[in-house]
Write a structure and sequence with these properties.
By secondary structure, this protein is of the alpha/beta class. It contains three helices and five strands.
């Protein structure tokens, strides 16, 4: 189990029905989260539509985060918001977070993952960040 999901599993078990908003879900976010938390209600946001939203998504929002238009996403709805390696790609990441916070329930959790300063010293592959 990936480290971020191990952390999440401290709050939610595999049989829990909780609403997840995966910000920047990418093409495989739904498969990964649903494989560990099959009963969760999975909502995804990304700029481009995944190949298959199928039955894994409760709802998919095709949104450019930098435009800060999140009106279609319900307020006070999500138990958990995940932003895994998204913030470092945004020019206005702090404002994106500020505007998405109201989408969480009052006791909701937000998980934000980003590269550390230490990662700037790792070898890089041509064509990558």
């Amino acid at each position: 189990m990936p480290a971020n999901l191990r952390l999440i599993s401290k709050y939610y078990n595999q049989g829990s029905s909780f609403a997840v908003l995966d910000v920047g879900c990418g093409k495989q976010g739904a498969q990964i989260i649903k494989s560990f938390f099959p009963s969760c209600l999975y909502y995804g946001i990304d700029k481009e539509m995944p190949d298959d939203t199928g039955n894994l998504f409760k709802k998919y929002f095709q949104i450019d985060l930098t435009l800060l238009n999140f009106d279609v996403i319900p307020d006070d709805h999500f138990d958990l918001m995940i932003m895994s390696h998204v913030i470092e790609h945004l020019i206005n990441g702090d404002e994106v977070i500020r505007r998405l916070i109201p989408k969480l329930k009052s006791k909701g959790l937000i998980y934000i993952e980003f590269p550390s300063l230490r990662s700037t010293k790792l070898p890089s592959k041509k064509g990558t960040l």
